Amino acid sequence: MTFTARTAIIVFAACMAFAPASHAQEEVIERIDAQGLRALVTGLGHEITTETVSETGQPVVAASDGQVNYLVAGTVCEDGQCQGMLSELVFTDTPVTLEVVNQVNQNYAAIKIVAMEDDSVVFSRYDVINGGTTLGALSTSVVTLLEISRLIVRGNEE
User: Fold this and answer.
1) Distance, CA of 94 to CA of 115 (rounded, Å)
2) Distance (Å, rounded) from C-alpha 36 to C-alpha 133?
3) Which of 18, 30, 53, 109 has the least C-beta neighbours within 10 A?
């Protein structure tokens, strides 16, 4: 699979079609915590499957959109208040060539893809909250990760 201008347009259109509606008056947040992660997931209409706090105090929420399982986690945290958010999902038994991994990592700087030795593929996206953002913007980030990863995996399986 090679990434062309047509592929980029399809990916962009899919992300816009699935992006949550923006809220003009949505509150700006400067940190995210477990409650914010839960609100983000449930606001997307997704199911929370587990919640935990890492040994370093990072809240982690695992969720499902009905098709894939993913997680959102606070990063750079102090007292449960985090300055960043990591979104991540893993596709198993999905061989992806190193060429595809390199193309994705070059063409979609906001998405990181790693091919594992067991034919698993890890997609991740990191959002910095410093200076403020909204739950809507973070939700759009999660939807973008989910949609781009699905399109890449489906395209690679064809």
Assistant:
1) 9
2) 12
3) 109
